[in-house]
Amino acid sequence: MKIIYRRCAGLDVHEKSVFVCARIVNGKGVEVIEATFPTFTEDLEELKAWLIRYRIKCVAMESTGVYWRPVWNILEQPPGKLELLLLNPQHVKALHGHTTNRVDAARIAELLQYGLVRASFVPPPEVRELRDLLRRRVHVQQDRNRVSNRIHRLLETANVKLSSVLGKVTTKTFRSILEGLATAEYIHPEALAILAMHKRVRPKQEQIRKALRGCRLTEHFRFLLQELLEEQDRLTAKMAMLEQRIAARMEPYTELIARLSEIPGVDRITAWTMIAEIGTDMTRFPSAGHLASCCGLCPGNRASAGKRHSGHTGKGNRYIRRVLIQAAWAAARISRQ
Fold first, then answer.
1. Which pTM does this prediction carry?
2. 290 shares a domain with 206
3. Distance CA 323, CA 289 (A)
4. What local confidence, expressed as pLDDT, does residue 117 receive?
């Protein structure tokens, strides 16, 4: 096989150590040099100096959890012109029973030297920061959804059937009634039903009264409801703070966001996520199919003996996959209107 990199290295990264195997082509063949480094910052800087000393041109490592990130952060900084490749562990998986730190690093280095590995997409630092902010927003939103589900379960245990009438816990009418339940010692269904003043909810006032009659309003119930409402407010404020910071960091992409928002089903949040997760340089993807596979939207192709079997969609990037599926459903609703 043809050698692609005459000087390269493979890293086997763990939480506390990095095992490195360098392969250098010289007149006598391929020289293999191995070393082990701890993962403290000063030790990773020593690792980089070690690679530069041996004039290594390209370095590959597996994406093992978050442990590859500190190594990548040090190696991508100047000085030094190291070409970094992040590999999918599934693409360089060893045979069962044939894996050690030394063997893994040597395998990665050998595959890299002959160009038998495919690098995963790693965006530049500014896009990675946007990705962190958008993913943090998703996590906070999920936490807020869990709180809403807990409120729903609490209401059911107290014989309050508001969810059957008003649906989502996050609506303004629902929230105003919840605040009344959290502070009142006795239920007045007629008084709380008057809070349903929205034109879409006003015809349901009698149903709201029925949902509130017979509820078991205790001090314990009020305490739990107040605590859940406070947590919901805290998470809502945190989401607003994150969105404000994201909007400020997205200002350089204002024109691109406006163009993306012209696509049916794509709103501002979806456009933000697309930029943060896949970046703006589409030349990193050889084709549209590669991009779809990266997003986890490319169906599998499994056929044998002339029969086509069910092919599962790959995992891909769950954050971009989530918003693109939501955008597709929104576009479908728009087309039916």
1. 0.80
2. no
3. 18
4. 85
